[in-house]
Write a structure and sequence with these properties.
11 strands, 117 residues, mainly beta, seven-stranded mixed sheet
């Protein structure tokens, strides 16, 4: 049974940084494409960043230049480091796993990120 558990969310001031983590179990982590998505109140879930099994990364325009997605296959963990955070980054951030760059079938429970002064 695949399980994804996110952590690292919280309250941060505008301009601050956060590093989100997602640890996977019940799957061969290294062969999966891992992604981060987010959903703000009243909005649809949107893609943030993806890292393939080979380490190739892609970012939504909203996160390009401010975020870094990385993975540690030995720890079955994917990270999203976000810098220069803005109030519009406030959302629940979800980890996703699949075998293509499109959203896969496995989701975590989400971690709340709130950017506010």
């Amino acid at each position: 049974q695949v399980k994804l558990v996110e952590s690292g969310g919280g309250l941060v001031q505008p301009g601050g940084s956060l590093r989100l983590s997602c640890t996977a179990s019940g799957m061969i982590f290294s062969i999966y494409t891992m992604g981060w998505y987010r959903q703000a109140p009243g909005k649809q879930r949107e893609w943030v960043a993806t890292i393939t099994s080979g380490g190739s990364t892609n970012y939504a325009d909203s996160m390009k230049g401010r975020g870094t997605i990385s993975r540690d296959n030995a720890k079955n963990t994917v990270y999203l480091e976000m810098n220069r955070l803005k109030p519009e980054d406030t959302a629940v951030y979800y980890c996703n796993a699949g075998r293509t760059i499109a959203a896969g079938p496995y989701w975590g429970q989400g971690t709340q990120v709130t950017v506010s002064s």
